[in-house]
Amino acid sequence: MPYAITVNGKKHTVDVEDDTPLLWVLRDTIGLVGPKFGCGGGFCGACTVHLEGTAVRSCQIQISKVGAKAVTTIEGVDASAIGRKVQKAWIDHDVIQCGYCQAGQIMSATALLTKTPQPSDADIDRAMVGNICRCATYVRIKSAIRQAAGLTPELTTPPAPLQIAVRSSTSAKGA
Amino acid sequence: MADDASFAPTRRTLLKTGAAAGGGLFLSWGLDAQGAATAKASAASLNAYVSIAPSGAITILSKNPECGQGVMTMLPMVIAEELDADWSKVTIKEAMLDVDKFGFQSAGGSNSARFNYDPLRRVGAAGKQMLIEAAATTWKVPASECTAAMSVVTHGPSGRKLSYGKLASKAARIPAPDVKTVALKDPKDFKIVGQSARGFDSPKVIKGEPLFGIDTRLPGMLYAVFVKCPVHGGTLKSAKLDAVLASPGVKKAFTVKGNGEFNGLADGVAIVADSWWRAQKAKAKLEVEWDEGPTAGQSSAQYAATSERLGPGPGQKVFHKDGDADAALARSAKVLKASYSYPFIAHATLEPQNCTAQFKDGKLEIWAPSQRPKPGLDLLTKALNISASDVTIHITRMGGGFGRRLMADFMIESAWIAREMNGPPVKLVHDRPADLGHDFYRPGGFHHLTAGIDDKGKIIAWKDHFVTYSDRNDPTKPAFACEASAVDPPARLVPDVTVEVSMMPMGFATGPLRAPRYNAIAFVYQSFVDELAHAAGRDPLEVQLELLGPPRVLPGSAEDAVDVGRLRAVLVKAAEMSGWGKTDLPARTGMGIAAYACMHGYFAEVARVHVAQTGAVKVEKMWVACDVGDTLINPTGALNQVQGGVIDGLGHALNAAVTFDKGRPVQTNFDSYPLIRMPAAPDVEVAFLMTDNPLSGLGEPALPPALPALCNAIFAATGVRIRSLPIDTKLLKA
Questions:
Q1: Which among B6, B349, B641 has CB closest to A134?
Q2: Is B12–A96 a contact, with Cβ atoms under 8 angstroms apart?
Q3: What gap in Å lies between CA B16 and CA B437, rounded to an integer?
Q4: Is A97–B68 a contact, with Cβ atoms under 8 angstroms apart?
């Protein structure tokens, strides 16, 4: 049956079964493929979107439950100043390896900083625990969130500057 | 690149990652480079990789598949360096599969940097020579009076300048020079290689643009699921498709007779619908009967019981023997016995296995998230009995590989389904249970170890009875990725070593996973060395260095040669970075050290952990010293690979296990197969030791030492030795 939903400020009418997860409506019906399919069980966070500003797993939300609530996906996160800051921090820190999880990571981070502009490390852990990064770029993700929040990144990333610290003439090849 | 570095006096330079915030030293991209408004039809091609538009926009193709290892950015940096390109004007595009043009296109073995560095330097240098010749011809001056920098050729005597954009069409008509003899730059003049460049596609990733195989969208595309027997190797007896066909949106459902190969086509049922969710829902209505085959009787418990029974006895065969380990054990002051084991684990790429294919007018076009598309193509043409000339393969970005996408099963399945549909493009997507249930698992294994130390605490004897798995079709051969190796340490380090092997039947698909074999062996070997050090009452670092002995190259093939001096150096450095030997650690806090050399990379790692009274393990910090030769092509990418690899390794140790019951994988999703998450991920401090050795890759070798470093730290914190993975925190309760 037809459902009217608002995604990134734009209205869409979609004709799908009522139990269709929002994720698949976004990806296959509307064509917004930024939210990713990772597990289909709400365990990995790759499909994270905002529902009225709250980070939710779109694979766990049936289209019939969305109603008039505003949906924001990674494609629309730059409408908010915080979203843009988070995106910029991701680039500044060169966070991305494969990149598959990063849309979900950015959505969770943006939701966190919108509610908690100055998060503690524990706040960051709590907000991000639902987002798996299989490449394990967690050091940079955390540091990027701290930058977006205006906190001093305290971790050993970002990678620049690289410095030449020691020179020695000992042979590494040996005899 | 010079392969005779051994003649040169080695200058070792330590490149340490800074703690300062902010970028500042990144190479920057121009606006042009990120957008679509770049080299178009008017661009001139200098060679297979490089084309330059009149605007000066340069497009460089990246030959190898990108699965998160950063190769898409890194390899074009090498070309751009020798081309003397203005990096801010460079756009990168993924090459199509075309091995005649690009050579082997693969993401595996940490080999992209190693195999392509020199050839791609030559590609860039040849392009530059053509641009210089074009300028010299225009000015009617000798090419030797012209130089190139930042996409501009300058005539020294007159000061005249011409941009690459203006020269490109003329340069493209000049015969290409011989790449073998083309002049290369002195690395001290490098402007791009050795600087940090952010991932080229990252600005698209943060906007959610379609990049991955699973994002492929084509006009009129249909969606498929493919149901296989839950027991590997099982065959289809019968399927009732009426309810499936009546399900909303279903276009077709049909049975597939496979070819019996794991890395091929399994028996199954394909369901094709107008949306993936509808295909997935229809699957629930499928009634199917399988012949589960012999694997249905197998379980992890049975494997462990078999190992326990076989372990104490002699192996079915002596696989490797140096000296006389029994005699050396007899003269040892102390003998230790321990059994180590590690489980099957899954690759669990976050992007589930998927592939899109279209079969139309006898031609197949395929969008493959594949680490090794050419072998995939070969298997596919065989399975479908189709000519390779009728197949076009697009290489897509991958949401992780880790070795899973070296396989071609998903390519063959999607091609088969697309041919059956004959016309519309079809995207096959496996759900997570299907992805986990039909992985090519990193095989588990059992090592029953006996070692002897002399009265000074030196390791003088080592015996390993390795209990592993035989091939399902040939019980005399090990299953894929279940092999022992004669060069695994401490062979070549301890004079008296025996490795015996026993095999048991195992019917699951297995395969390489990030740092294959090393990811398991390093845990066993480096944990037991630590155990022996403690048994001798000695400092583990001291024992490690003694075991390695003086700097020398251990004999072996080019792939197996290990430079002991390099391994010693990273051990010493990691110890120094971490403050190894500290005695004032808080209660139930400990540090562990481990090192391993594989894939031409040398890694030493120190873990500092705290173990709570509950047994919960918190890794507080990891220190890593590594040596991957004389060049880091893209330092930011290099550091990212090391940090990710180390944390991935910690995740293996803390969480990862696939177990089998009644021939079925028990774990179905990330609730039962947990992956490491942010709160468990420590800070990872990395130092790169730069040595005069040929550069090598970074996708894998950081991973193996992380596991034993962690387990050795747990022993230091609690006195409990972890001999079986994943770590059972119940054993660590106070």
A1: B349
A2: no
A3: 42
A4: yes
Q: Beta strands B363-368 and B391-395: pairing type?
A: parallel
Higher pLDDT, B34 or B548: B548
**Is A161 an interface residue toward B (CB < 8 Å)?**
yes
Q: Which contiguous run of DSSP H or E holds residue B519?
A: helix B518-535
Q: What phi and psi, each to the nearest 5 degrees, are found at residue B503?
A: -125, 145
DSSP B682: P
Q: What is the mean pLDDT of residues B262-288?
A: 98
Element (H, E) at A104: helix A102-115
Full strand arrangement of the beta sheet holding B589-598? A162-168, B12-17, B683-690, B617-627, B601-611, B589-598
Whether residue B685 and residue A32 make contact (CB cut-off 8 A), yes or no, is no
CA triplet B124, B129, B132: central angle to 5 degrees?
125
Please provide the size of chain B in residues: 734
The model's pLDDT over B231-241, given as tens digits with 9 standing for 90+, comes to 999 999 999 99
Contact B238, B289 (CB under 8 A): yes
Mean pLDDT of B602-616: 98
| Cβ pair B207:A74 closer than 8 A | yes
pLDDT at site B11? 35
Confidence band for B40, pLDDT divided at 50, 70 and 90: very low
Can you tell me the distance from the alpha carbon of B713 to that of B316, in angstroms, rounded to the nearest whole number? 35
Give the number of other Cβ atoms within 10 Å of residue A7's Cβ. 21
pTM of the model: 0.95
Contact B551 A34 (CB under 8 A): no
Q: Got the DSSP string for B692-717?
A: SS-----SSTTSTTHHHHHHHHHHHH
What is the pLDDT confidence band of residue A153, given thresholds at 50, 70 and 90? low
CA–CA gap between residue B87 and residue B29 (Å, rounded): 7
Euclidean distance between CA atoms B417 and B176, whole angstroms:
43
Q: Is the ipTM of this complex over 0.85?
A: yes
Sequential DSSP letters for B647-682: HHHHHHHHH--B-EETTEES--STTTS----GGGPP
Residue B663 three-state SS = coil
Residue B155 in tokens: 């005539």
**β-bridge mates for residue B391, sequence order:** B364
Q: How far is CA B670 from CA A100, B511, B645, B674, B730, in A?
A: 16, 21, 20, 5, 21
What is the distance between the alpha carbons of residues A136 and A94, in angstroms, rounded to a whole number? 13
Distances (CA, A) of B159 to B146, B153, B189: 9, 10, 21
Nearest residue of B to residue A168, measured between CA atoms: B12
User: CA B658 to CA B674: how far, in whole Å?
Assistant: 10
Closest-CA residue of chain B to A85 = B206
pLDDT cut 70: percent of chain B above it = 94
Q: Identity (one letter) of the amino acid at B398?
A: M
Contacts of A39 in chain B (CB under 8 A): 432, 669-670
Element (H, E) at B393: strand B391-395
Q: How many helices (H) does chain A have, and how many strands (E)?
A: 5, 6
Min CA distance, A68 vs chain B (Å)? Answer: 23
